[in-house]
Amino acid sequence: MSEEKDLSVGFMGCGKMASALMQGLVNKKLVNDPSSISCSDVYKPSVEEAAKKGYSATDSNEEVCKAAKDVVLIAVKPNVVKDVCVDIRKVDSDALIISIAAGITLESLESFLPERRIVRVMPNTPCLVGEAASGYAMGKLCNGKDEEMVEKLLRSVGVAKKIKEILLNAVTGLSGSGPAYVYQFIEALADGGVRSGLPRDVAMEL
């Protein structure tokens, strides 16, 4: 039986969340050859770090769009999403667009990229350790295969739930911001252990 072909995925942005997703694809064997993942960033150290891991890293968004045949994932700050979409429009491609940019609605994304299939995702920081809880909303032009693709990608780093876009704000408050409160609670418990005489490293581990 022939091996399943590697997904061809491109990332606009090589930050922590994008890096975690890239590593998840490799860990779950959705991509066997890291060079099948292309990524771009304006921050040179991020590009260099991605290249060290074997990804096809560049400072050109257009190069990523040309290389990524299946999915282009927008993982940049919200204030530069529109500019990134300008670069995406320059390349003739049928790749699914997935955005993890906070606060940028499907309506806005679809106005920036008319005629493209777009998915909006709200991941969270446990993505960095493969324990993400992500909510996603499908754009109006998406189909069943697109949903399967999103599920496959997001489940490489945790769990994923399809929801109505209007509920993504609730997801942001629950799973997006929620872990920070849990971390604070854990740190407070450790502080109590330290005040009772435990070494900091022991208190944190316990």
TrEMBL record:
GO molecular-function term, one example from the UniProt record: pyrroline-5-carboxylate reductase activity
GO BP term (any one): L-proline biosynthetic process
Pyrroline-5-carboxylate reductase catalytic N-terminal domain sequence ranges: 9-103
Sorted UniProt keywords: Amino-acid biosynthesis, Cytoplasm, Oxidoreductase, Proline biosynthesis
Pyrroline-5-carboxylate reductase dimerisation domain span: 166-206
Keyword Cytoplasm listed: yes
Highest taxon of the lineage: Eukaryota
Cleavable signal peptide: none
Family membership noted in the UniProt record: Belongs to the pyrroline-5-carboxylate reductase family.
Name of the protein: Pyrroline-5-carboxylate reductase
Organism: Pseudo-nitzschia australis
